[in-house]
Amino acid sequence: MAVDITEEEEKSPLYKHFDANAEFPLEDLKKMTENCELSPEEAMTPDQINDLFQEGYLPGEFGYCCYPDGSAMLANRKSMPDVTVEMFDWWFCWHMIEPLRYKIWDPNNHLYCMTKQPEKLQDASVPYHERYWDTDCEIMETHLPGEQAGHVVIPFRNPADLGFDVQRLAEFKGTIVCSGNARTPVTMVHFLRPMEHGVELRSRFWYGYHVVNGKIEKVQLPPHVKFDAGRMRNSLMHNINEFTNLSRILPGLYEEYKNVPI
């Protein structure tokens, strides 16, 4: 079921991109995420994030791992044909300016999105990938249609602030969109690298982890907070769905709006 659209949004030129039927079939998502729990040995730990710069693939590229203390880790890998690194960085500036742009991304689960620093994202003197560093974005979304909506503020960061090696970052031909701080108990990494016919996105989420003094560390979770297998599987299905749709719509949106001020 598609999210609500206001009368004003229906009149927007962007509304033509809102496809209420863009949902990845739920049964297909369930099949894709069957039996994909990772062992602790397979799951990447935060101190291994620089291994993402290596050629090839690592253990645990797809799935989730739940730990006895209530924390968890999630990984997804998505090929995005015809998408470029610049498109991806442009998207993470462009979509946070008005809620309809976020709804286009996932018309069945994305309800609201707005940056708290629009002037920084719109500063054409700064490269796209640096504009969203140190900005906060308020979002509301569901993981799957029909679920209760969650409300979070995502603190986007410079990858170096999460422990990525500065020299490797300078040499990297891709981009890293990441978030986390001392107040947020979830740390996110979207590691995007160029491939022959587009890009490849390798995502990592650490639930029950925050960022302190340039390192990703565990949070002492309250006893009632637990990132269990059901919750992680729903999160993985959501991640598959939204980035599958983004891969489909991004080349066209970029071509249409790349020369229009954000």
What Rg is obtained from the alpha carbons, in whole angstroms?
18 Å
Gross geometry: globular
The portion of residues forming beta strands comes to 25-35%
Q: Between the first and last Cα atoms, what is the distance in angstroms?
A: 29 Å
Number of helices: 8
Q: Please provide the ordered H/E string of secondary-structure elements.
A: HHEEHHEHHEEHEEEEEH
Major β-sheet, in short?
8 strands, antiparallel
Descriptive report:
By secondary structure, this protein is α+β, with helices and mostly antiparallel strands. The protein contains 8 helices and 10 strands. The chain has helices spanning 7-10, 26-32, 85-94, 99-105, 118-121, 128-131, 166-171, 229-257; strands at 63-66, 72-81, 110-115, 135-141, 150-157, 175-179, 186-195, 198-207, 209-212, 215-218. The strands form 2 sheets. The chain has an 8-stranded antiparallel sheet with strand order 1-2-8-7-6-5-4-3. A two-stranded antiparallel sheet has the order 9-10. The longest helix has 29 residues, at 229-257. The protein is globular and about 50 Å long. The two termini are 29 Å apart. The mean pLDDT is 96.
